[in-house]
Design a protein that fits this description.
Elements: E1 7-9, H1 11-18, E2 23-26, H2 29-34, H3 39-53, E3 57-64, E4 67-70, H4 74-82, E5 87-89, H5 94-100, E6 104-106, H6 108-117, E7 122-124, H7 135-138, H8 143-150, E8 154-157, H9 166-175, E9 180-183, E10 202-204, H10 207-217, E11 226-229, H11 240-256, H12 264-275, H13 279-303
Parallel strand pairs: 1-4, 2-3, 2-7, 5-6, 7-8, 8-11, 9-10, 9-11
Antiparallel strand pairs: 3-4, 3-6
Bound molecules: pseudouridine-5'-monophosphate and manganese (II) ion (MN).
Length: 304
Amino acid sequence: MLLSSLLSFSSEVRHARENGLPIVALESTIITHGMPFPQNVETARMVEQDIRDAGAVPATIAVMDKRLRIGLEPEDLDRLAQSENVLKCSRADLALALSTGQPGATTVAATMMAASAADISVFATGGIGGVHKGAEQSFDISADLVELGRTPVCVVAAGAKALLDLPKTLEVLETNGVPVIGYGTDELPAFWSRKSGIPAPYRMDSAEDIAALIKTRERFDNHGGVLVANPVPEEAEIGREEMAVHIDAAIRAAEADKISGKAVTPYVLSKIFELTGGKSLDTNIALVRNNARLAARIAAALAA
Ligand code: PSU
Ligand code: MN
């Protein structure tokens, strides 16, 4: 693939590739646009370590110095987390960051593109982008959903945030041919909450079963991704009723401040952080770490 000529690997990821070790991709928008400093770097480091502890190698993905980095050296991670002019890069933005040299943080969509170019088939994140509430007016549908339909990477997420329209998000995933698997649950998890009231299309209870599904899909031509929806650990969850109040308030604030386009998700996340007195961040950290551990087990099962 042509994108391969733009990739630069960290020493840890290069070693893993040479030795056939399981690798898990991680996105960087969550670091630059999803969490405040310094919790963003601390979390990124913890998540990388969770993946190592579970027997795989982490590859945090970002654009730096006109290169698509697959794995960041610790000093690069620090530099990215503290940069102020980082571009949030989805599919539409990746070439801009690569051609101008502006640092770029990759969303789920762009991280999938990079992972696929680097032959990494499993990727852990917090929550995917989706169909926003009111999309029938705004047409705000995340490019993550289209990418899941075209790029063969398994994305492990804690469902989609309840600030999205979850039934419409599932419909668009289905239209794009994406299998959605509830991990150990019959219900689609809703990011901060374990439950959404919406059934998960499929359920699987082991990393091995998920790896078998991925291997089968690899035999199809032009197959896309798989979405694994992994509920937040019980002790860290914020219940649906409590979250609904904060989400409504955050969406109203975004409308009042006339926030649109790619600024919507970061704005609403930081409002919710304020409204929950920081509790939403603890939940966010717990669910990303939980997804990283599951992704490492899926990657190990695929490598076995
Ligand atoms: N969910 C989070 N934090 C985030 C995101 C999602 O809890 O930072 C990011 C992811 O990178 C996701 C992106 O791919 O937001 C979706 O943005 P948009 O809706 O603009 O496509
Ligand atoms: Mn959007």
